[in-house]
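Re: that backbone. C-alpha cells:
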C-alpha cells in the first residue's frame, strides 16, 4: 500500500511538472508573440494623388504580443484613432501590438503608386499582416474619384459598387485574406458570381458556359476572381486568375492549381508536380501532357492496394513542404522499394523518365566498393549501370555510330540500336532479349547477360552485391 501511494505521489509530481513546463512555454509564447491565432480585418482604401491611403482595422486579436509586418512599400505607418482604445496596444515604434484585452486595433499607412494608376495594374503585398496570424475574414472598402473609371478586383467576393457624384465606391468581403489589389481601366465588370468564383469580363458570358460551372470540382471553397483578358500584363496570384478565353477546362484547371498553391508549399519543384498532386486530390488528370503521362505511369504500375495507399498519402499531405524528394519518399513507401521517379523527372526537360526501382545494396567489384555502380529493376529485369560497371571489369564502353561498343583486350562487343542480335569478336549472334538497354541517356546491362557475356559471378547478401571477375574465382 505504501509502495502504491509512493508511486502515485511520484506520478502526480511528474504530471504536475509537465503541465507546469507546458504552461511556462505557453506563457512565453504569449509574451514573445509566437502563439498562432486567427483574426479578422476591415480595410478602408482611398486612392488620391498617386497613392493609396489605407486605414486598417484588426479585429479579434488575441491577448498576446502580436508583431506587425508592414508592406515593403508602406510609408507613414501610424495609429488611426477610431476610438479611445483603437491604439492602446500599439507600440511606440509601431512594430507590434502589446499583450492586452482590447480585441480591435487600428492603424493607417500609405502605399505610393509611382505614376498613378495604370491599366491592368497589379499591386502586390500591399496590406499589413500579423506574424503567426491567419486571416479568417476580410472586408475591403475602396473609394476613388468619380472621374477614375475602371474596376477594382481583390479576389474576395464583390459585395457591391456605386457611382456617386464625387466618388466611386466598391466593397468586397469574404473568408480569408486578400494580399493583392488589381485595377483595370474601362468597362470590365463582374458578369457572374458564385460562392467560389467571380468572373470579370467586358462582355456578357454565355449561358452554356455558366451552366458548366455548376459541375466543376474544386479543392476548397475559398473565393477566387477570374479576369478574362486576352493580353494580361499581370501574373496569377493565389486569388486572381487571368484567362484569355473562358472554357470549363481552363477555369477548372487554373482554379484548382491556384487553390493547391495556396493550400500547400512546394519547394524546388517544377510546375507539373503541383499538377500531379492536384490530379489525385480531384481524382482527375489535369495539367500538362507530362503530368498526365506521370499519373498514367503510376496508375498502370500500381496494384489496387498500392493505388489506395498512394491516394491516401496524397489526401494526407498536410502542411509539410512538398518537393520531388518528399514525393519519392512517399512513393517508395507505397511501393516498398526505393525510387527516384519524381527527382529524375524533375531533371528531364523533354518527355518523362520511366519508373525505376532501385536496389539499395552496395555494389562491390572484386572486393572494392563502387559507389557509382547502380542496380535497378525495370520492366521485370534486373539491370546494372553499364557505363560505370564495365570499365571496372576491364572494358571501355561508349555509344557509337552503330550502337553501343564495349571493348576489352581479347573480347569486343557491339550492341546495335535495333533489337534481335549482338556482335561478339566480329561474329553476329541472335538474341531473344536485349543484353543492353538504354534508358534516357544511360546504358544498362541485364543481369543474366552480364554473367554470360562478361564472365562474372554474382554473390548477393542483405547489404551488398559482389561482382567477381573470372580471375578472382
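Recovered sequence:
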Amino acid at each position: 500500500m505504501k509502495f502504491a501511494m509512493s508511486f502515485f505521489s511520484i506520478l502526480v509530481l511528474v504530471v504536475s511538472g509537465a503541465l507546469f513546463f507546458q504552461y511556462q512555454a505557453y506563457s512565453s509564447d504569449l509574451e514573445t508573440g509566437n502563439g498562432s491565432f486567427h483574426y479578422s480585418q476591415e480595410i478602408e482604401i482611398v486612392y488620391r494623388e498617386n497613392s493609396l491611403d489605407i486605414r486598417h482595422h484588426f479585429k479579434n486579436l488575441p491577448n498576446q504580443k502580436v508583431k506587425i509586418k508592414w508592406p515593403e512599400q508602406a510609408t507613414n505607418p501610424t495609429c488611426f484613432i477610431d476610438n479611445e482604445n483603437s491604439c492602446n496596444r500599439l507600440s511606440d515604434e509601431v512594430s507590434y501590438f502589446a499583450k492586452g484585452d482590447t480585441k480591435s486595433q487600428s492603424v493607417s499607412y500609405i502605399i505610393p503608386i509611382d505614376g498613378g494608376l495604370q491599366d491592368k495594374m497589379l499591386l502586390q503585398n500591399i496590406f499589413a499582416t500579423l506574424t503567426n496570424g491567419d486571416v479568417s475574414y476580410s472586408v475591403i472598402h475602396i473609394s476613388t474619384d468619380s472621374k477614375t473609371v475602371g474596376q477594382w478586383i481583390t479576389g474576395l467576393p464583390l459585395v457591391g459598387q456605386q457611382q456617386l457624384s464625387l466618388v466611386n465606391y466598391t466593397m468586397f468581403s469574404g473568408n480569408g485574406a486578400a494580399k493583392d489589389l488589381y485595377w483595370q481601366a474601362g468597362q470590365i465588370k463582374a458578369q457572374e458570381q458564385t460562392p467560389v468564383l467571380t468572373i470579370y469580363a467586358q462582355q456578357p458570358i454565355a449561358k452554356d458556359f455558366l451552366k458548366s460551372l455548376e459541375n466543376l470540382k474544386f479543392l476548397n471553397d475559398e473565393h477566387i476572381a477570374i479576369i478574362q483578358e486576352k493580353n494580361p500584363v499581370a501574373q496569377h496570384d493565389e486569388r486572381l486568375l487571368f484567362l484569355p478565353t473562358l472554357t470549363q477546362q481552363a477555369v477548372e484547371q487554373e482554379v484548382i492549381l491556384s487553390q493547391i498553391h495556396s493550400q500547400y508549399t512546394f519547394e524546388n519543384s517544377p510546375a507539373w508536380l503541383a499538377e500531379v498532386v492536384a490530379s489525385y486530390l480531384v481524382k482527375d488528370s489535369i495539367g500538362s501532357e507530362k503530368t498526365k503521362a506521370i499519373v498514367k505511369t503510376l496508375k498502370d504500375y500500381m496494384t489496387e492496394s498500392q493505388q489506395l495507399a498512394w491516394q491516401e498519402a496524397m489526401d494526407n499531405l498536410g502542411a509539410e513542404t512538398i518537393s520531388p524528394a518528399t514525393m519519392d519518399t512517399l512513393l517508395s513507401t507505397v511501393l516498398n522499394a526505393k525510387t527516384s521517379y519524381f527527382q529524375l523527372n524533375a531533371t528531364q526537360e523533354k518527355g518523362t523518365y520511366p519508373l525505376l526501382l532501385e536496389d539499395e545494396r552496395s555494389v562491390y567489384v572484386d572486393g572494392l566498393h563502387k559507389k557509382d555502380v547502380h542496380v535497378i529493376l525495370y520492366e521485370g529485369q534486373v539491370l546494372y549501370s553499364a557505363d560505370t560497371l564495365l570499365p571496372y571489369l576491364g572494358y571501355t564502353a561508349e555509344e557509337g555510330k552503330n550502337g553501343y561498343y564495349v571493348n576489352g583486350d581479347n573480347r569486343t562487343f557491339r550492341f546495335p540500336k535495333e533489337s534481335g542480335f549482338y556482335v561478339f569478336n566480329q561474329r553476329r549472334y541472335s538474341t531473344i532479349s536485349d543484353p543492353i538497354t538504354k534508358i534516357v541517356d544511360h546504358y544498362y546491362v541485364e543481369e543474366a547477360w552480364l554473367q554470360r557475356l562478361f564472365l562474372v559471378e554474382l554473390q548477393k547478401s542483405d547489404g551488398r552485391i559482389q561482382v567477381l571477375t573470372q580471375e578472382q574465382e
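Residues 264-346 form one domain. The chain has a mean pLDDT of 89.
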